[in-house]
Amino acid sequence: MMAAGAVLRSTTSDFISLLAYTFIFGFGFGWTFPNLPKLVSIYFNKDRANVAMGIVNSGFPIGTALGLGISVPIILPIAGTYQGVFLIWSIPTIIALISWWILIKQPSSKSSHIEEPRTSILSFRGAFSNKHLWLVAVLMSFHTFTVYNWNGWTPVMMMLKGASPSLAGLIDSITIWAMIPTFLLAPRLSHRIGLRKPFLWVPSIVLAITFWGAQYITINTSWFVMALVGIASGTRFTTLMSLPLELVHESEVGIWGSNWPTSWWTCIRYYSEL
User: Fold this and answer.
1) Which of 11, 34, 109, 134 is the most exposed, fewest CB within 10 Å of its CB?
2) Is the dihedral of CA 216, 271, 261, 255 positive or negative?
3) Are 259 and 31 in contact (CB under 8 A)?
4) pLDDT classification of 35: cutoffs 50, 70, 90
5) CA 85-89-94 angle, 5° bins
């Protein structure tokens, strides 16, 4: 579904068709995303799940940074049209689809924690009564809302401060690039000291102060600020993503891997831009 939606977006000629095909892509993503923490819980023990999830999460900023950083200055001149850009960016999705189909084997029922339907229903109810998981879901929702808005509006903010569109996109991508080493290092540090709360509180305070002071950012100082936001948001994101692996039984991880409140905040964020 993601591959189909990605290819179909290259055929769009108006806003409605683009929205419809993006919905198809997003619907496929919604089916795929919850399986990532579930797969980590299958192949790694809880004491190593935090670090493993950090490695998995590192794929998010790599793809996002490439998209933000090279779409306008490099891909658009090659493709010629925005439809061509969509077509080129559908290739990684198709490669991922083929690679998954060929290389990944279905886990055995024992390792994938497949249970009887009645037990699964009880696990589903038990997970939804876990107040700690609800807290994680709410925190992830607000994290997604704030960080997505930051990345969505940073190019506009930098252009208002005198940056060209290409430079504004490059500056915006610094936030994502800074997340890559953070996703790899923060979980290891958290695992070593055995604490999680500092990796939520400290980044939250840093981001709150930084967002409040965004009005004072200049083009020269933006590089440092964007890197700081990337480190803070990356630390908080990977910590929140790994917490369900530690708070619930392996059979319930898939239920909370979807983190459905995040999707609603993401939709609100995009409609705020429209």
Assistant:
1) 109
2) negative
3) no
4) confident
5) 145
CA pair distance 91, 219, nearest whole angstrom: 34
Amino acid at 151: N
Read off the tokens for 232. Answer: 């803070």
113: left (phi over 0), alpha (psi -120 to 50) or beta: left
Query: Distance between CA 67 and CA 97 in Å, rounded?
Result: 19
Topology of 44-62+119-273 in CATH?
Growth Hormone; Chain: A; (1.20.1250)
Q: pLDDT by residue (tens digit) across 113-147?
A: 544 444 454 455 555 666 777 788 888 888 888 88
User: Which of 156, 17, 152, 12 lies closest to 82 in space, CA to CA?
Assistant: 12
Q: Tell which residue, 211, 213, 206, 243, has the closest CA to residue 50.
A: 243
C-alpha closest to that of 238 among 147, 102, 165: 147
Domain regions of the chain by residue span: 44-62+119-273
Distance CA 269, CA 262 (A): 11
pLDDT of residue 108: 58
Which 8-state DSSP code applies to residue 6?
H
**DSSP 8-state symbol, 259:** -
- State the DSSP string of 92-115: HHHHHHHHHHHHPPPPPTTTTT--
